[in-house]
Q: What sequence folds into this?
């Protein structure tokens, strides 16, 4: 891995917290993601399943974690199964985890090779009544592919039909939504790498540059700072491209007088950052562009103040909508009649700001979180208002990642990344 080793105490603590929420006499199972084929002998780059990583730190394919805190055999309360490594694999594929390295990474003492799975699991099953299975229950999930986890679940339930079944996901939703200090440090690293990329392109962007050239600059800066690259598919949208919310082609030339909307960020150690900025191709905003920009920035600042313990996500978005409506009235994009006659299920401001303002972020860009419950300290949210005006040929979105505090306003992990319009102009013209 490119990233520095992570303190195994993080994963030890995460397993302890998960185990505390399990039913008596139960086993929880977690699998690595598949290595997905492309064609011939080609595969997509491996991305570890975030849940097994969260609980073990193991960042390797074909790994399985089992937790059985009540097992009478103490050696089987935490078990890792790994693909057996050897000299041939080391030569052709690179070094894989040894049992000793797996312990150093995870803090798990009992490590078996995968060929021992059935034998060991059978012994564990004789002491257990329930299997926890791990399903994807994220509110945005749209899973069309049967995963390695899915196939393991089918095999497990067929193999042990007399055992009860429970769900891991509700426990993980709760645990993963509140970040450990080690996690916050890793996320800060991701944000710091993102800052380096953004500052680099402020001195690179000029009329006639291509969106993909900017993408290349960002990728180079991210990778040279120990990131695998982009935390998600980057959006580099100049001109009217910015009005396509998930524009990812990044294949157009940037024209004088246009704005460029960036939704780009680095990952670090599988932890994500998520940044949006909008800058002028020519280094200066027009008066109208700056007025809209400052309106978006104002909404962002006011929305950030609302992210405090006790806030309910749904109610928060209603309040942000009220703030945005006020700014759109000032800009002349809405009038009083638009607001008075609005559909309460789709308020007038949605014509120019049609997406949400905040989502959880962590190991996933849209991370787990119980949105119907009050926010808590050490939850991390994005704040990303935008105004999109196809008739005027530009859209503006601004976004930072913030950590909710016990008291007061949240801490901005991206507080060092330039955002004020005047500062951006100064940096682009320095």
A:
């Amino acid at each position: 891995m490119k990233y520095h080793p992570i303190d195994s105490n993080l994963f030890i603590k995460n397993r302890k917290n998960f185990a505390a929420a399990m039913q008596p006499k139960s086993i929880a199972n977690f699998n690595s993601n598949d290595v997905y084929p492309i064609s011939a002998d080609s595969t997509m780059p491996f991305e570890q399943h975030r849940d097994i990583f969260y609980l073990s730190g193991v960042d390797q394919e074909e790994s399985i974690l089992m937790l059985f805190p009540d097992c009478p055999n103490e050696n089987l309360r935490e078990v890792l199964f790994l693909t057996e490594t050897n000299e041939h694999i080391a030569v052709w594929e690179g070094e894989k985890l040894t049992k000793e390295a797996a312990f150093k990474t995870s803090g798990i003492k009992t490590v078996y090779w995968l060929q021992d799975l059935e034998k060991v699991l059978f012994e564990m099953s004789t002491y257990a009544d329930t299997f926890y299975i791990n399903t994807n229950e994220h509110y945005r999930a749209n899973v069309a592919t049967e995963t390695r986890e899915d196939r393991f679940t089918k095999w497990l339930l067929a193999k042990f039909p007399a055992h009860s079944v429970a769900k891991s996901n509700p426990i993980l939703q709760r645990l993963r939504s509140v970040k450990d200090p080690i996690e916050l440090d890793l996320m800060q690293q991701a944000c710091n790498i993102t800052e380096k990329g953004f500052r680099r392109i402020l001195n690179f962007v000029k009329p006639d540059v291509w969106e993909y050239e900017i993408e290349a600059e960002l990728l180079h800066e991210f990778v040279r700072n120990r990131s695998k690259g982009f935390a998600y598919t980057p959006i580099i949208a100049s001109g009217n491209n910015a009005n396509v919310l998930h524009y990812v082609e990044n294949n157009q030339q940037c024209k004088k007088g246009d704005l460029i909307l960036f939704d780009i960020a680095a990952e670090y150690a599988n932890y994500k950052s998520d940044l949006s900025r909008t800058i002028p191709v020519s280094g200066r905003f027009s008066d109208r562009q700056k007025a809209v920009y400052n309106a978006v920035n104002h909404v962002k600042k006011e929305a950030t103040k609302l992210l405090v313990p006790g806030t309910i996500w749904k109610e928060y978005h209603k309040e942000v909508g009220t703030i945005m409506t006020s700014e759109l009235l000032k800009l002349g994009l809405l009038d009083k009649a638009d607001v008075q006659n609005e559909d309460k299920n789709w308020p007038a401001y949605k014509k120019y700001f049609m997406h949400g303002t905040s989502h959880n972020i962590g190991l996933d860009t849209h991370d787990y979180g119980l949105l119907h419950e009050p926010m808590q300290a050490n939850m991390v949210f994005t704040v990303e208002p935008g105004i999109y005006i196809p008739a005027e040929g530009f859209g503006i979105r601004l976004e930072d990642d913030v950590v909710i505090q016990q008291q007061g306003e949240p801490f901005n992990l991206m507080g060092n990344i330039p955002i004020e319009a005047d500062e951006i102009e100064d940096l682009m013209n320095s």
Remarks:
- The CA atoms of residues 161 and 395 lie 55 Å apart.
- The first strand starts at residue 26 and ends at 31.
- The domain at 181-428 is CATH 3.90.230.10 (Creatine Amidinohydrolase).
